[in-house]
């Protein structure tokens, strides 16, 4: 089915429609050989809580964004090459049902489908596309993946020192290396974590010690340095202006 739709008029229209829904905030998606395999709404575990996100599965990339108007308007576009993707099943936990992890070298996160059937369909199609692209490219599956962030609400105290209680004044911060929620005092340094960021990002003291090998601090770009207070995370940026209408459906070829 996918091969039959390559460069077909039907597929070209579908891809063009996705581009139009993202408008100027998104990147061009029309590439020779690219096919839109499926689309739908998944609930993504964000930093503070779960939020619905529109996902588009192509035969070589996974695209998702914030929902502004259901089926019509999206922003905050993210593009994930499928050759980097590895999936991991999640067991049902209270209100968090039908979930799995999407893990890549630069970012890993949990998503949840509306039903067990939708979860099965999503995981089946994603894994099939990943296997196809790896086979055609003669590549091996990725073995290194970014840590999954612990949700803010899952940590009432710093996961590093186990002492600092989080309040309006004592803010939560995430270590980009291990994903733990830590206090400011336990994450005063940054380090360029391989695969996660091209610039130094916040890490906890334990991860900083491991990554830097206990060496001296440096201020050169890409090296460990003292953390400044004006750095914001991708997850924080993603949640800005987060308004949407919700839909629960998925469509695959």
UniProtKB/TrEMBL annotation:
Signal peptide, first to last residue? none
Please report the stretch or stretches of sequence annotated as the PH domain.
35-131
The UniProt record lists the keyword Phosphoprotein: no
Query: Which residue ranges does the record assign to the FYVE-type domain?
Result: 152-212
* Polar residues composition-biased segments: 220-230
Ordered alphabetically, the record's keywords are: Metal-binding, Zinc, Zinc-finger
Residues annotated as region Disordered? Answer: 215-246
Q: Which GO terms describe its biological process?
A: endosome organization; endosome to lysosome transport
Q: Name one GO cellular component term.
A: early endosome
Which InterPro entries does the record cross-reference, listed alphabetically? PH-like_dom_sf, PH_domain, PH_domain-containing_F, PH_Phafin, Znf_FYVE, Znf_FYVE-rel, Znf_FYVE_PHD, Znf_RING/FYVE/PHD
What protein is this chain from? Pleckstrin homology domain-containing family F member 2
